[in-house]
Amino acid sequence: MVDNKGCAYCFEGPELDEFGIKICDLPASKLYLFKEQSHKGRVIVAHKKHVSEFVELTGEERDAYFADIDRVAKALHKAFHPDKINYGAYGDTGHHLHFHLVPKYRDGYEWGGVFAMNPKEKYLTEAEYKELIEAIKANL
Q1: Strand order from edge to edge, sheet including 20-25
Q2: Which residues pair with 29 in a beta bridge?
Q3: Residue 23 is inside which H or E element, if any?
Q4: Beta-carbon contacts of residue 13 (< 8 Å; ≥ 6 apart)
Q5: What was the pLDDT predicted at 2?
Q6: pLDDT tens profile 8-60
Q7: Closest CA to 75 of 124, 42, 111
């Protein structure tokens, strides 16, 4: 297991506040709204356990994590009706297992193009973030 010193997902402090808002805890993970919303409904599903790779999970932990990802994807489809959800698991520098779920819309930002991790183009008001969070929670 890698050191969790300074991990945004483990400590949920100022580091997390820079890019995300916690939505809720799920059985195996924590769900966050990504503040940059060029892709309406973009979220992060971070495993509760501080691990860097799937190989560090037991089969049961892995299956529970994928069940959470599935649950969130279904909620995003119900809430926002995207044409596709892209899934990204990164972490070269932030060694905590997490997936970005990125709803894509045919008439929207980057459809058919190269994905930008953080385009820094669309931020919302607190009321707009709350509205997205409530829509996701209502469909979990």
Answers
A1: 20-25, 29-34, 43-47, 98-104, 84-88
A2: 47
A3: strand 20-25
A4: none
A5: 61
A6: 999 999 999 999 999 999 999 999 999 999 999 999 999 999 999 989 999 99
A7: 42
Domain map (residue ranges) of the chain: 8-139
| 4 pLDDT above the threshold of 90 | no
Tokens of 116: 């930008």
Token pair of 42, please?
């973009």
CATH number of 8-139: 3.30.428.10
Nearest residue to 53 via CA among 94, 12, 19:
94
Query: What residues contact 78, with CB distance under 8 A and at least 6 apart?
Result: 139
Q: Which residues contact 113 (CB under 8 A, 6 or more apart)?
A: none
- Quote the CA–CA distance of 44 and 88 in Å, as a whole number: 9
How far is residue 39's CA from residue 82's CA, in Å, rounded to a whole number?
10
How far apart are the C-alpha atoms of 140 and 135, rounded to whole Å? 9
**Tokens 């969070």 belong to residue:** 133
What are the distances in angstroms from CA 53 to CA 63, 126, 136? 14, 34, 27
Question: 44 is written with which tokens?
Answer: 């992060």
